[in-house]
Amino acid sequence: MSKENSIISIEHLxxxxxGKVVLNDINLEIKKGEFVTLLGPSGCGKTTLLRxxxxxxxxxxGVVRMDGKDLSGKAPNExxxxxxxxxxxxxxxxxxxxxxAFGLKLKHIPxxxxxxxxxxxxxxxxxxxxxxxxxxxxxxGQQQRVAIxxxxxxxxxxxxxxxxLAALDLKxxxxxxxxxxxxxxxxxxxxxxVTHDQExxxxxxxxxxxxxxxxxxxxxTPADIYNEPVNSFVADFxxxxxxxxxxxxxxxxxxxxxHEFECVDKGFGNNVPVDVVIRPEDIYIMKQTxxxxxxxTVKSCIFKGVHYEMFVDTxxxxxxxxxxxxxxxxxxxxxxxxxxxxIQIMKKxxxxxxxxxxxxxxESVEILGASFPCKAHGxxxxxxxxVEIDFKDVERQDNQEDGILAGEVHFILYKGDHYHITVRTDxxxxxxxxxxDVWDKGDLVGITLNPENIRxxxxxxxx
Amino acid sequence: xxxxxSWALPYLVFLIIFVVLPLLLILMYALQDAxxxxxxxxxMNFFSDKDSLCTFAVSIEVAIENTVLCILLGYPVAWILxxxxxxxxxxxxxxxxxxxxxxxxxxxxxxxxxFSMLGFTLGKGTLLFGMVYDYIPFMIYPIYNTLCKMxxxxxxxARDLGxxxxxxxxxxxxxxxxxxxxxxxxxxxxxTVSTFAISEFLTNNKIKLFGTIIQENINSSLWNYGAALSxxxxxxxxxxxxxxxxxxxSGEAAxx
Lengths: 463, 256
Prior knowledge:
heterodimer, A: alpha+beta, six-stranded mixed beta sheet, globular, B: 13 helices
């Protein structure tokens, strides 16, 4: 499985904390000399993954190999890699020089050699003349440089960086990004970088690994990830995007926003529901409407420095975001064109809510531990069934107590004319809801279902 | 005087009656002879009285020994209590504070009874036992606090840079917990110098401490000399506090 130029290979890594799956079957190959970024929202498991590679956490299952050798059971001090910690973790009782020399002194390297290497590192991170300074007297950026020097002085083959720039202000962060990139180029060692900042990931990385809820969503170059997101999570998380519901009519022909468009994607089948991703800068907007593919009314227009960001109500009843160098007057009618190769088409992850259920009475069914009344189904109690509910048929109650099932709004995706909302329940599966109401992330809601809308499909055991 | 600051008035009165006035009284008595004339003789007497100086030296010695013993025994306890993997419940911490809820005098008397029942000869050993028993919570607590507040990432960073468990402790954990040790030492050292009950009960007054001779003088109505001795002790306490404050301010807390 390990490829020739791979330095770290991760196989079937799984980690659970108190019943919550943090990492779910992670498989990853990291090439020698690569700048890899683990990107995802907070709680996606990226830091846990980094800490497992560093040896600070033990996985429940799976192995991390470095140069083909299994690292399981090896303590952090026995691993040939070093970490730059989120809040630097510089030792406050030691000065800058002593901090950097810490690792070398432990290895009993001769003093002259330590001195030579520490000074070289100080020069590399532009911190010469700071060796006697107290670490507390340094600014955030300077502390960060010392932390990087302290790791690199040990000549690790792999450097792990845990959101190293998160505590810096924007300007400083941008400068440090360039310096890190330069450092990586000069050293030629492997960097594994953890961040939740998609812009940072796009700027720095050779390869981005997008993580969500403990699973790898997509691995690819920054351009791949940006231009061809594989699912709506990646599309929504990386950059701005319009994610719309569409139908693949046939190969190279897709309908969305109430119009038909030419595209370059094939192999989805005919008349298949799909998700369509359009980057706001890929929509051509103009005053003339004659040659436009579709038209709309400008609803808002905000200057964003380089471009204007506009929200446009389209003739098909959707709201989309458009970015352009020119401003268009609010209220004016505009024409828009989308080129075939700017249309990214994704298979729909799901078309309706589908749960495993058990019949618990002639007119109800139990799903996710709650009993929902449904139409008479004529099935015996205890029969295993599949239960389907359309996204739009899930009803929300503002009070958790009023619902048959309680849940929390977990993820909100705007789909041009409605919101697609993930409601996390205590049970093993999520409810997905299509709605026009505005919900907020973290809202506690109750879920009810109209018996008419529940489809109960018996599962035949002998099949 | 603004309205808000007038709220402090009762406390001010309290402080004057119970802190400032007694201190002034000590100063007054220390600098007066039995007839009420100003004199430095009381203070000079102390420095020329061999017995007092000897007791003073013994007190300091016992205090140092007690402090060192408390550090040696208290640090591991604090470390274990602060370690979340070794100590999962708050109950253990309460168990360590529990003895402090009982009056120290009662505990000391009980210890003395226990020793006499077991047939131990009362002396230096029993004295130190009693002192450590009484004062160790004051050492454990500050160290426990510093260790709890210590950022775990220092630990991780040291391990990441190649330190094994012992090296992490000697090179990172111990140096970083020095402030806790320092305030623990202060809280143990100072009351030990002035204690008299423990030495009275646990050595049958075989070993006299500085606190003992102050008590004896006051009891035999030699108020002026007693006050002078108290003054000397106050000065020592003042100096120790100042020293420890200064070392804390410079970020390098001395052990004693």
